Amino acid sequence: MGNNDSFEAVIGLEVHSQLLTKTKMFCACPNIFGMEPNTAVCPVCLALPGALPVINFEGVKLAVKAALALNININRKSLFARKNYFYPDLPKGYQISQYLDPVSSNGYLNIETGCGEKKIRINRLHIEEDAGKLIHIGNQSYVDLNRAGTPLVEIVSEPDINSASEAVAYLKALREILVYLGVSDGNMEEGSFRCDANVSVRRKGDAKLGTRAEVKNVNSFKFVEKAIEYEIERQIDVILSGGKVIQETRLYDSKENITRSMRGKEEAHDYRYFEEPDLPPLILSEEFINEVKNSLTELPGLKRRRYVS
Question: E strands along the chain, which residues?
């Protein structure tokens, strides 16, 4: 691996956190991990013709609660959108998400680093549904749609993170808040707290961002740190050898501690987002927002500082 003293890493994180609701985001199926395959399903999450989604407002409440705890501005009006792509575990052929008009935007989370406190800006927190799950046994693949429709929040940071250790500090602080507030159980092994890392490098002093690669399949803090460290070094080696970093999605192989190319990185237009015609705009009253705000308890970081002082 090359000398990285003249380079700096620029990292943004996309975190998907499942919400602790009793039922799924757009239907009445139970939101329980570990049920027999394809038993927590109905015409809505199976995408049968004529089945219509209905918004789970407990999921909305938990999303707003998380956003307020992360200093994110709540948008009184937001829209659901269809994110179109094909995969065997996505029965509708699209995912109900939010795009141009998310439920919240522009926040921040302060983290502790070796050099003191650092503010990581958060671009947005939006609501969406999870996809199903593929289970690979030998040369066979099986589809379990129990997870399809599970409520999620996606929390997208700005590229303010500059090292693997900062990324882990951010994820730990974020997970701590979500678990403490009862928004999510934060179980990384079960996939209820997942992270994709957008990693790029540039020479120190350059204003322009480098070409980023999105690293997927990182399901523990240890693997997040190792995957980002490897990807930083890989990109530096590519540049020093005269090559160009390409924009792509890469998977982390924990056994060999490397990232492997998976596919070209999609842009937003590849998903052909458009407003979800089967759901109305999500309108949040000031009374509702204040009710959620008043339900917040003292956050762990503030409590620690109060006890120490």
Answer: 7-18, 73-74, 77-78, 81-84, 94-97, 104-113, 116-129, 133-137, 140-144, 151-157, 193-203, 213-218, 248-253, 258-264, 274-275, 282-283
**How far is C-alpha 295 from the geometric centre of its chain's CA atoms?**
24
**What is the structure's pLDDT at 1?**
47
The whole-angstrom separation of Cα 243 and Cα 225 is 25
Report helix angle 300-308 to 164-180, nearest 10: 100
Determine how β-strand 193-203 pairs with β-strand 73-74: unpaired
Strand order in the sheet with 116-129: 73-74, 104-113, 116-129, 151-157, 7-18, 193-203, 213-218, 248-253, 258-264
DSSP characters over 37-77: TT-S--TTTTT-TT------HHHHHHHHHHHHHTTPEEPSE
Question: Concatenated DSSP letters for 211-226?
Answer: PPEEEEEE-SHHHHHH
Mean pLDDT by 10 residues, the chain (309 residues): 78 98 98 96 96 98 98 98 96 97 98 92 98 95 98 98 97 98 96 96 93 90 96 96 94 94 72 96 98 93 81
Is 95:51 a contact under the CB 8 Å cutoff? no
* Tokens describing residue 138: 């030998």
> What is the per-residue pLDDT for 191?
92
Tokens 């701590």 map to which residue?
Answer: 176
Contact predicate 75/105, CB 8 Å? yes
Where along the chain do its domains lie? Answer: 4-308
Is the distance from CB of 82 to CB of 95 less than 8 angstroms?
yes
By the 8 A CB rule, do 193 and 183 touch?
Answer: no
Angle between helix axes 57-69 and 286-295 (nearest 10 degrees) is 60
- pTM for the model: 0.94
CA distance 103 to 78: 5
Query: The tokens of 211 are what?
Result: 């070409």
